[in-house]
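Hi all, long-time lurker, first post. I run a small reading group and we've been trying to get comfortable going from sequence to structure in the token notation. Rather than ask abstract questions, I figured I'd post a concrete chain and ask someone more experienced to write out its structure so we can walk through it together at our next meeting. Sequence below, copied exactly:
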Amino acid sequence: MVAVVVVAVAAVVALVVLPPGQAKTAAGRTSPPAPGSASVSVPEPSPAAVAALPAVRYDAVIGGLMPFTGVVTALVGRYQLAQDAAVYGADRRTPVAKFPAKDFLDEPSTVVVVRSDGGWDLVLTPARVTLPSASGGSAPAQSAGWIRASDLHRVANIDTKVVISVGAQTLTISAPGTADVTYRVGVGTPSTPTPTGVTGYLQQRYLDPSQGESVYPIQLTSLHATTKDEPYGGEDGGLIGIHYNQTTTGAVSHGCVRLTAEAIQAVNRLPLGTPVTMVK
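-- Answer (accepted) --
Happy to help. Here is the structure in token form:
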């Protein structure tokens, strides 16, 4: 687990497979919703109302968000925000949080869309829905919420992906036009496991000499520990990181994924927003 230098569960969002009719257009607008899809019209909150909402930061716990389970084979795309945007829960009627336009490093937040529906985009967030200590020792690793499509600015397609097999202790990078590349990795111990059966994304990266990472940037995912609030014992919100370590085999970490220098450099070349899928 890595410390970041700088807080009632709704319906579960399950595996999302994107039908062609739900893809984003080149202009960033959603295509017409498929027959039977929900298109909810609600008044936009005022800037003051949005400002008063809790932010979906890495250390936030926001019960109105939706747990996100299952894996995603592809993302609609990578987006940014011109200003803080309201995030809605399953009913898409009452805002429960805000997605800040700038992240904790004061850089444009990376937003990834997993599904579009009638002017709304389902996005993954860096926040938690609940803590393991508040949910019987087992909490979702990933959260999601709805944002108006008009609040999002398309930056790029996402063609790359990372798949981490906790059982095989491997990390595989897939990119168009190239052969898959697989590396051996270290994963969480039985008491501080790396989550499985879920997709998150690379939300940010940075160097942290205080943690011995002055050469190879720590790669922060949007995923969180599922069995302990703070497995690393710090105040990082239980984030799951991908980072360099001299010990890169076995069940050895607090839930993070440990890579060799070669492997972490390969992940560092991937764009933010790249999906990270954890499997057994």
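A couple of things your group might point at:
Residues 5-10, 15-37 have pLDDT under 50 and may be disordered.
Helices lie at 47-51, 261-268.
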